[in-house]
């Protein structure tokens, strides 16, 4: 199995390099890092600036803000990739615990391959969104729960379950929807009181303490609590339900994680109940089955919550796909006619084929097609961002502020944006607020892409064109165009560089 471990490590290194350097820009990267920078300055999410996710990511990342102050967005991506890698290793370790004893190594290696050799998963756990950190907390939670239930002694079991509850609570503090595995695990332990005794109590104490530590300060501060409630209203305001979008999201999720779905189906269809025979008694296999049920239940609970959202983007599932990979690898390991090397080879081959054929590679290298001809990108989007930052610096040497809704450009230039724009294109400003900002903004430089003024939060519909043109007219009164960059950033819009006339 050592050669498969080496091959999977090599594949991860290659794919991680591709994801970190070649991976397309995502608007969310900028405002997550910007929020972390504000927390590092002593500002509080919800109270001092608007923020829509759980508060833990900016709090954790604020301790590592030097990574993007030194290395820009590339530094933040490397940091996030390492966090994502740690989560994959922990999911693999959980699979090792849950799998039948004779198949532990194969299950562990297969679980890592399903994640660490999956270009889509690596990309979304390398860009600085909430997914990598949330995955790490979910992975830690399921690993500790599995260890507590399968192999720990009574005293260690209580400590591990407490720590597991704490970790699942931290996952919910990163993305609120990830409270589902916390509830699934807690209630499962409660219903299994005869088997695990007071384990549910220790788990619940850890979960309660974690939630209190994360959300307590915001519940105690009236202004922060109002902002937290406003963030949930922001999500709810994007109402409606489009069955075509939902089915499309599910279809894309299956495409991105097809190797895991194949192994899961194989395990369900062909796997034996307990896998390889247990040498002691039936109870260890029963505990492993219970831990496997926690992984499956936690995944489907979050899956259901996300799919019920008005617009269930498939990448929302990334933090819990490790749970699915654990389930898929363990179930496949129970297929008696599938030897360990064959399982590892199957997982590796499927993952390599899926990654090599991933549409992401084409998306990162071309900007669509002009009739017969593919429009090849002149440079990767991250390199393009770095060049745009140099241009901003050339227009305004040593500047501290930048008028932009492309927050990854603010991160790359190490500059502040006007108050109210902390969430980039998803920032909420009233019409009066926009007019006041454009009439009084003192930023020497503006860098404005096709996202500027276009999105009308919280419903995230397109702002009426007439209103957009009014804002551009206000902007042109005080700023003059310097140059532009075609096909810039996420979804390749035009980036305009403007300089304030009074600063000329």
List the helices and strands and how they pair.
Layout (H helix, E strand, L loop, with lengths): L1 H21 L4 H14 L15 H6 L4 H33 L5 H13 L2 H6 L6 H20 L3 H21 L4 H13 L1 H4 L2 H22 L1 H16 L5 H14 L1 H13 L12 H25 L13 H13 L6 H17 L2 H7 E5 L2 E4 L4 H15 L11 H7 L17 H10 L4 E4 L6 E2 L4 E2 L2 H12 L2 E10 L4 E8 L4
Antiparallel strand pairs: 1-2, 3-7, 4-5, 6-7
Structural account:
The chain is mostly helical and 504 residues long. The chain folds into two domains: 362 residues, no CATH class; 123 residues, no CATH class. Helix content is 64%, strand content 7%. The protein is built from 22 helices and seven strands. The strands form three sheets. It has a three-stranded antiparallel β-sheet, covered by helices on one side. A two-stranded antiparallel ribbon has the order 1-2. The chain has a two-stranded antiparallel sheet with strand order 4-5. Strand 6 and strand 7 form a beta hairpin. Helix 11 packs across helix 12. The longest helix has 33 residues. The termini are far apart. About 2% of the residues have low confidence.
């Amino acid at each position: 199995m050592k050669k498969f471990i080496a091959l999977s490590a090599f594949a991860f290194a290659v794919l991680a390099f591709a994801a970190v350097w070649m991976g397309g820009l995502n608007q969310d990267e900028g405002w997550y890092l910007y929020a972390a920078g504000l927390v590092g300055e002593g500002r509080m999410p919800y109270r001092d600036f608007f923020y829509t996710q759980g508060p833990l990511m900016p709090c954790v990342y604020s301790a590592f803000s030097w990574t993007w102050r030194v290395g820009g967005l590339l530094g933040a991506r490397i940091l996030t990739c390492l966090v994502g890698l740690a989560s994959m290793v922990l999911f693999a370790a959980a699979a090792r615990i849950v799998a039948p004893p004779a198949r532990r190594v194969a299950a562990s290696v297969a679980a890592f391959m399903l994640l660490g050799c999956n270009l889509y998963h690596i990309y979304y756990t390398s860009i600085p969104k909430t997914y990598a950190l949330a995955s790490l907390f979910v992975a830690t939670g399921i690993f500790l729960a599995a260890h507590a239930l399968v192999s720990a002694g009574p005293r260690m079991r209580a400590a591990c379950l407490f720590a597991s509850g704490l970790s699942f609570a931290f996952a919910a503090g990163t993305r609120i929807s990830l409270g589902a595995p916390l509830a699934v695990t807690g209630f499962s332990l409660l219903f299994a009181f005869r088997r695990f005794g007071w384990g549910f109590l220790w788990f619940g104490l850890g979960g309660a303490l974690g939630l209190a530590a994360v959300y307590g300060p915001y519940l105690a501060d009236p202004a922060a609590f109002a902002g937290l409630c406003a963030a949930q209203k922001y999500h709810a305001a994007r109402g409606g339900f489009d069955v075509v979008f939902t089915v499309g999201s599910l279809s894309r999720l299956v495409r991105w994680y097809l190797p895991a779905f194949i192994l899961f189906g194989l395990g369900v269809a062909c796997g034996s109940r307990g896998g390889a025979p247990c040498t002691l008694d039936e109870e260890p296999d029963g505990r492993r089955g219970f831990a496997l049920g926690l992984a499956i239940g936690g995944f489907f609970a979050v899956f259901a919550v996300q799919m019920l959202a008005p617009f269930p983007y498939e990448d929302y599932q990334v933090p819990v796909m490790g749970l699915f990979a654990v389930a898929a690898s363990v179930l496949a390991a129970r297929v008696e006619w599938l030897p360990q090397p064959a399982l590892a080879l199957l997982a590796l081959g499927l993952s390599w084929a899926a990654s090599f054929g991933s549409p992401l590679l084409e998306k990162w290298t071309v900007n669509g097609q002009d009739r017969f001809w593919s429009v090849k990108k002149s440079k990767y989007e991250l390199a393009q961002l770095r060049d745009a930052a140099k241009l901003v610096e050339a227009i305004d040497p040593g500047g501290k502020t930048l008028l932009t809704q492309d927050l990854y450009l603010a991160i790359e230039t190490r500059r502040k944006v006007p108050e109210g724009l902390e969430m980039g294109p998803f920032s909420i400003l009233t019409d009066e607020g926009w007019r006041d900002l454009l009439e009084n903004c003192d930023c020497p430089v503006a860098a404005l892409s096709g996202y500027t003024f276009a999105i009308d939060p919280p419903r995230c519909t397109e702002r009426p064109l007439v209103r957009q043109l009014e804002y551009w007219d206000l902007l042109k009164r005080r700023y003059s165009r310097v140059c532009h960059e075609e096909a810039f950033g996420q979804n390749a819009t035009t980036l305009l560089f403007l300089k304030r006339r009074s600063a000329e």
